[in-house]
Amino acid sequence: MQQLTNRPWFTFYQTNDFFELPEISIYSLLDQSVKKYGDKTAIIFEDKRTTYRDLKYQVDCLAGKWKEMGFEKGDRIGLMLANHPHYIVAYYAAQALGLVVVQVNPMYTTRELLQIVNDSQISSIVGDSIAYQAIKQVENIHSFTYLLGSHLSEEEGKGFIDLETLIGEGIRLDDPEEVNAREDVAVIQYTGGTTGKMKGAMLTHFNLTSNVIQSFQMYGSAMVPGKETVLVATPLYHVYAMTSAMNLGIYIGADLLLFRKFEIENVLENIKTYKPTFFPGVPKMYNAFVNHPKADQYGLDCLKMCSCGSAPLPVEIIKRFEELTGTRIAEGFGLSESSPSTHRNPAYGKKKIGSIGIPVPQTDCIIIDENDNELGPNSVGELLIKGPQIMKGYWNNEAETAKALQNGWLYTGDLATMDDEGYFYIVGRKKEMIIVGGFNIYPQEVEGVLYSHPDIKEAAVVGIPHEEEGEIVKAYVVPKDGRQIDLEELRGYCYTKLTPYKVPKSFEVKETLPRNTVGKLLKRLLIKEELEKR
């Protein structure tokens, strides 16, 4: 706290923003809320309500059954399913046993899943019908837990166990596993880098619970424990929804209005019925709201506060949404490596559109040049972050950990600037990462798939600025001598190798790709050329 009092953003904090953060487990968030709000609704899903007491009963029964089955503290368990109450049950049951949750996009292909399985050595996966095809191809997982709902035949269901059966058979766990909150890893959140290789950010119980409390503090008196309803439409396997929707919602005893997926008509009808008060969304969702012709007829003014994560939100969308609802979107910033929130525009007081806001309480930030010298206001350099939410390191990857964590600072790889009042702005990314719909796409991974195609000699994948999506993925391909590339066939090929959101939206065949004198690919020239066409 002492070092932060001299930071220009310190004056924007409320007086109660600084206290000793508790060293508690993720499971304790649920345990504490059950004691306060036992008979209150915890989850609303497809018009069915689950109370906090019922939720904890299911969590404890599943944890008890898993313990009986031989699960031990530190075992990695994958969660590979779309939003569903059982996601929350499985997540907290794992935390009760001190297991390490590995969150996996259920749309991942077998190839993508194998990268995570082989790196983290997952012993079991909780999956759903979406993930079934990928999971069944993975042979080195010795135990499967399967959430039914896909009408599997007896033959198809071999090797899988019904999650509801486990909950029903389980005897409630008497005592949750003791954890060292600062040291014990609660979640491995996979992310990529400039190389495109997945890395597992190790987030401890202290990292995650601290970020929940930091997020709560940023909302101030706008968020009243026991009185809120959180609109949960962003996937829970995404680190942003995990913290800002699920864990924060559980912490404050909120109703979690949960959606399997974001479908605008269904979401609007539920908003009209259940009147959510908080919404942690992503740009594509806000864009859908402002472009719906009858959005003003669904009572969106019930929302007291919204936040946006995962990708920058165009200024025009912010203005239109705030005019439509009368509420406020608190733009912010975060990374998988920081649990994820590091910055947010304050709920009250000064908001600067286009800024990611100020660091959340008990977080320090600096901007440095290429020689690690700290820069003053209005200078562009790499953003470094220090705080209780910063990861322990990358799973089984000391080399990458040493690059990312130095002297307590997380080197983000993002280029930023800070104004005189301590508000930060992201101006670019050192990494070549592309963000589509709130999800990270790493060009080298997509390029690797393209290079495996028999007709392709060279490939380059870039993010092209797009008014509605923020960015779209475009692939430039050069055919091998004497070959012709069928772009529709190539698109289909990509769908067999990649999750749909990673498949390039646009393809272009070129004779050559721009390179410098030493052969380095100049992707910026491809982007420049694309923008000049408009």
Itemize the secondary structure elements and their pairings.
Elements: H1 26-37, E1 41-45, E2 48-51, H2 52-68, E3 76-80, H3 85-96, E4 100-103, H4 110-120, E5 124-127, H5 132-135, E6 143-146, H6 163-169, E7 185-191, E8 199-204, H7 205-219, E9 229-232, H8 239-251, E10 255-258, H9 264-274, E11 278-281, H10 283-290, E12 305-308, H11 315-325, E13 329-334, E14 341-344, E15 358-359, E16 364-368, E17 381-386, E18 393-394, H12 398-404, E19 405-406, E20 409-418, E21 424-429, E22 434-436, E23 439-441, H13 443-451, E24 456-466, E25 470-479, H14 487-497, E26 506-509, H15 523-532
Parallel strand pairs: 1-10, 3-4, 3-5, 4-7, 5-6, 9-10, 11-12, 12-13, 25-26
Antiparallel strand pairs: 1-2, 7-8, 8-18, 13-14, 14-15, 16-17, 17-20, 19-20, 20-21, 22-23, 24-25
Write a brief structural summary.
The chain is an alpha/beta fold.
Report on this structure.
This protein has 534 residues and is of the alpha/beta class. Among the domains are: 1-25 and 204-379 and 411-431, ANL, N-terminal domain (Rossmann fold, 3-Layer(aba) Sandwich); 434-532, ANL, C-terminal domain (GMP Synthetase, Chain A, domain 3), CATH 3.30.300. It has 15 helices and 26 strands. Strand 3 (76-80), helix 3 (85-96) and strand 4 form a beta-alpha-beta unit. Helix 1 (26-37) packs across helix 3 (85-96), helix 2 packs across helix 3 (85-96) and helix 7 crosses helix 8 (239-251). The protein is globular and about 70 Å long. The mean pLDDT is 90.
